[in-house]
User: Fold this.
Amino acid sequence: MFKNKKAVIWDLDNTLYRITPEFADRLDLAMAEALVLDLGVNMSVADCKNLVKESYRIYRDGGEFFYQNHNISPKDLFKHYFNRKPIHLIEPYQGLAEKIKQVPFEQYIFTASNRPASEQILKHIGLFEFFKDRFYSVEDFGVYKKNENAEVYKQYCNKIGYNPNDCIFVDDSYSNLEFAKEIGMTTVRIFYKENSAKDKTYIDTAYKGVMDCVDNLIVCKKA
Ligand SMILES: [Mg+2]
Assistant:
């Protein structure tokens, strides 16, 4: 499946590091604080946090409820939320930074975090030097999500100079894989507890955690 591929494009958040349920809850608080304290949404932080969770459940996007009902722009929330992201709480995977260098493909990152947050996260998990000139944020393409249409994936491939058919796209969020597949990439999903997207035909394969994925990418050319 990977043998004739040339590039791997990694998602960052909850792929190259784990967003535990505790950390996810802390991120919901950061988003609620950004909405209430920075952007003036008129409610308590606690109420806002509950709505962020509800918005994730309904739209798979914690901000969507506020774009629709509170006149918040994605651009503003993007900025303030990522400023409040508690990056110091992320626990890097032991050994990932060394192991990922053995993957026999060109490697890139495509993240829905903004550039300053991505940079800090990559430094924190020991991968900034490795991905320094090879990470791109949705904001580099003028969008805020990866799962709205295929256009951003086409632009991404143009930017890195690879045909989509040569690329392996890895993401924990399966809605991001749909458009990657649409333009011809090989799609890999990272899951944790169980693979809840087994039925999705646009996912070529899935691994439990990134280490398993990296191991398989390393051996694939030898196989
Ligand atoms: Mg992710």
